[in-house]
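haha ok so turns out i had the wrong file open the whole time. this is the CORRECT one, sorry everyone. sequence first:
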Amino acid sequence: MVNNNREIRFRIAPVFAVTATVLLIAWNNGPFFYHFAEWRLITLYSFFQLGAAAYICFLVCRAYTTQPLRDWRQNASVRPFLICSVGFVFLGLDEILSLHENIDKLIHHVFFIVETPFTDHFDDFIVLIYGLVALFFIKDFIREFRKHPYMIAFLICGFLTFFAMVFLDYVTNSIETFLQFFKGESYADLMHKRDVYRMVEDSAKIIGETFFLTAFWAALIDIRIKKSKG
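then structure:
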């Protein structure tokens, strides 16, 4: 088991190294906030990580059984990873297509809601619901996830980072909300500080995604090591 853990650590370490490199580039190269805008480095890297996590979950399903998809749903070991794969695909689409922001706009349009500092946070609550739904499913899969080293620890780190991101998103989403937390500075200084916090928020997002990605990557490595040793 010790050797297995050492091999898992060795294989997942590059994932954290890549994320650290991306963050260093985003924070220290180009104009201020440039890499954090839509369809720039951070958004694209987030999309890549979520897609990679979905694919790795799919590979875990394949590693457990070669049966067709319709039979995977009946396999207690496969089902959690299949559901997580579908979830990561949805989150990847949300990241690149801004689905939760568009749902926010649709709610305002359909129900004729006038945008206020409160209703401006609908998209924040939608993201929070994503996390709560994920927790609802994962709590039923703990038994399967505990079979693999590092999975639970990485998932906990991922959720803690996710909820920190949600809080930062709430704080920075509207200037009215931001002013509730930060006062006594010039408007220009406040806007700069808000952009910095938005950068921290997006950094927390991809760090959280890295924890989720490595959690499932560690599971896949563990399964393959055990199969190779018979």
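The chain is about 75% helix and 0% strand.
again sry for the mixup
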